[in-house]
Design brief:
140 residues, alpha/beta, 4 helices, 6 strands, globular
């Protein structure tokens, strides 16, 4: 799991004490790669800090064997990794709720990108898991 420091801190307040169920087990058991300048304060194991050249660190991680890296939250990190061509697939989770306001998934300065539809799964609660492959800029 790849997350920014703010997301790590938010998740730390919930997931370690969320109980025993599949989602919590997966998140708590995953290695958390955290973009941070304060690695000494990371306590939610297993955890590894990424600092310095974030793009080079993530490029290096992508070349190693192991499970897929999954980026959760982290609006600024999402835009940065899309710009660097480091995101292969995007899963948009759509809940059957309309909100008048809330967090954006990309920064305001991010340019439009082209995605290719890959798959959708509807859960029993009406949540849709929509998977897209990243294609590139609409301008290219």
């Amino acid at each position: 799991m790849l997350i920014g420091r703010k997301t790590y801190d938010e998740f730390l307040g919930y997931w370690p004490n969320a109980g025993y169920f599949p989602m919590a087990n997966a998140i708590n058991g995953a290695t958390k790669y955290v973009i941070t300048h304060r690695p000494e304060s990371l306590e939610w194991e297993p955890v590894k800090a990424l600092a310095g050249d974030i793009i080079a660190s993530i490029r290096s991680l992508k070349t190693t064997d192991g499970p897929d890296l999954i980026l959760l939250g982290s609006i600024s990190l999402t835009s940065l990794l899309l710009d660097a061509g480091l995101i292969d697939e995007i899963v948009l989770i759509v809940y059957p709720v309309l909100l008048g306001r809330g967090k954006r998934i990309l920064s305001d300065s991010y340019d439009a990108q082209k995605l290719q539809f890959a798959n959708t799964v509807a859960t029993p609660t009406g949540v849709l898991l929509n998977t897209y492959r990243y294609v590139g800029s609409l301008n290219s």
